């Protein structure tokens, strides 16, 4: 079955870059019938979608307006994974970060497989 | 893009039904049929319960059902069970981006 395995540091200093990776098993990052997302959950509990990448003859990238100037999502076909980079972090970026799959040729905002979550704290 | 509005809490006794709402705008909930619902237990990742307003993924009990009217989507849990106590979030397509709801805690009395 499809599984997503997250990795990356749990502590990042203010103004530095947050980097996480999501390794895919049982599916392909370059599949024509899936989109690969990053979502975070603040300590107060709310979920926030950050962005996605998907392949439909070429790579597509969509980002949330709130982080658009600071975020990069990169697919890595050689390792069948995708990554999140969030620049210039502040304590407000402290959250649990999830990667998630949205299956189907059409993007439907239906995240059926989730990674285990990574708690990232931004602190000096 | 603002978060979709959900009531903070809802409750019901075992066996009863509870319905929670998710209110957006014509740019998100009202403009598309890509509304999903997620269940989240403490310390766990969210679990997809409903997609495309009304569709239940394989393995989700038929006690869970979804609907939509105008800019408001709803999730109904019938025949409440103790294990249904959790946080529930809606999400919607909003023109190439995704927006989540504020979340509702369902308590089984």
Explained architecture:
The complex is a heterodimer of chains A (124) and B (109). Chain A has 124 residues and is an all-beta fold. Chain A is 0% helix and 52% strand. Chain A has strands spanning 3-7, 11-12, 18-25, 34-41, 47-55, 59-63, 71-76, 81-86, 95-103, 113-114, 118-122. In chain A, strands 2, 4, 5, 6, 9, 10 and 11 form a seven-stranded mixed beta sheet that branches. In chain A, 38% of the residues are buried. With 109 residues, chain B is mainly beta. Chain B is 0% helix and 44% strand. The mean pLDDT of chain B is 96.
Count of DSSP-assigned helices of chain B: 0
Which class do the helix and strand fractions of chain A yield?
A: mainly beta
N→C terminal distance of chain A: 39 Å
Q: Report the strand count of chain B.
A: 9
Class per helix and strand makeup of chain B = mainly beta
Shape of chain B: globular
Short description:
The complex is a heterodimer of chains A (124) and B (109). Chain A is an all-beta fold.
